[in-house]
């Protein structure tokens, strides 16, 4: 029993020691600073006249950005294995995806490998450009394309 308690203490300490090192600087912080312009609350009027609100906020010691709109949630971070900005999205109906972010000039191009709730791949592409308090987004999903603007409404 003593040996089990010792092993439990050792294995419990390893993640704590790793987290203590990580608290100083996380690998993604420097890379994600490029996305700082996204942080805030954004609103747009949909085609049916409703107001849609989205939030982008830093989480986990500025190691990740959480983007939320309606029931959709996306976590943006630095993929340690690919050495690239990557995001993982989760839809309210069970869909999920992983996206690669590439900056070209002042536009972010986001290529998403999306799986709908039945596991079928659906191609998704986004472009995002922020100019001051305006965010321009183009979005293509399953052959449908749309473009819209959101305004920053931080409170």
Q: What's the short version?
A:
The chain has 155 residues and is α+β, with helices and mostly antiparallel strands.
Structural summary, described in words:
The chain is of the alpha+beta class and 155 residues long. The protein has a single domain (27-152), classed as Lipocalin (Beta Barrel), CATH 2.40.128. The protein has helices at residues 2-22, 27-32; strands at residues 40-45, 51-59, 64-69, 72-79, 84-90, 96-104, 107-115, 121-131, 134-141, 144-152. A hairpin with a 4-residue loop joins strand 4 and strand 5 (84-90). The longest helix is centred in the N-terminal third of the chain and has 21 residues, at 2-22. Mean pLDDT is 87; it is low at 4-14.
Helix content: 10-25%
Mean pLDDT across the residues is 87
Characterize the overall form.
Answer: globular
Q: What percentage of the residues does DSSP assign to strands (E)?
A: over 45%
What order do the strands of the largest sheet run in, or round the barrel if closed?
A: 1-2-3-4-5-6-7-8-9-10
What is the CATH top level name?
Mainly Beta
**Biggest sheet overview:** 10 strands, antiparallel, barrel
Order of helices and strands: HHEEEEEEEEEE
Q: Could you state the CATH homologous superfamily?
A: Calycin beta-barrel core domain
Query: Uncertain regions: pLDDT < 50 for 5+ in a row?
Result: 4-14
Total number of strands? 10
Overall tally of structural domains:
1
Structural class: alpha+beta
Using the 3D structure, state the CATH architecture. Answer: Beta Barrel
The rounded distance between the terminal residues' Cα atoms is 56 Å
Q: Assign the CATH topology.
A: Lipocalin
Radius of gyration: 19 Å
> Given the structure, what is the number of helices?
2
């Amino acid at each position: 029993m003593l040996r089990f308690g010792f092993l439990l203490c050792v294995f419990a300490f390893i993640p704590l020691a790793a987290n203590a090192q990580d608290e100083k600087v996380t690998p993604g912080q420097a890379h994600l600073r490029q996305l700082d312009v996204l942080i805030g609350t954004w609103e747009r009027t949909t085609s049916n006249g409703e107001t849609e609100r989205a939030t982008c906020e830093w989480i986990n010691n500025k190691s990740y950005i959480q983007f939320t709109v309606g029931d959709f949630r996306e976590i943006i971070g630095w993929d340690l294995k690919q050495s690239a900005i990557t995001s993982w999205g989760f839809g309210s109906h069970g869909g999920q995806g992983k996206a690669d972010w590439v900056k070209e000039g002042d536009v972010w191009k986001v290529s998403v490998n999306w799986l709908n709730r039945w596991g079928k791949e659906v191609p998704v592409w986004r472009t995002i450009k922020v100019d001051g308090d305006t965010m321009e987004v183009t979005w293509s999903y399953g052959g449908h394309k749309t473009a819209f603007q959101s305004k920053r409404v931080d409170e």
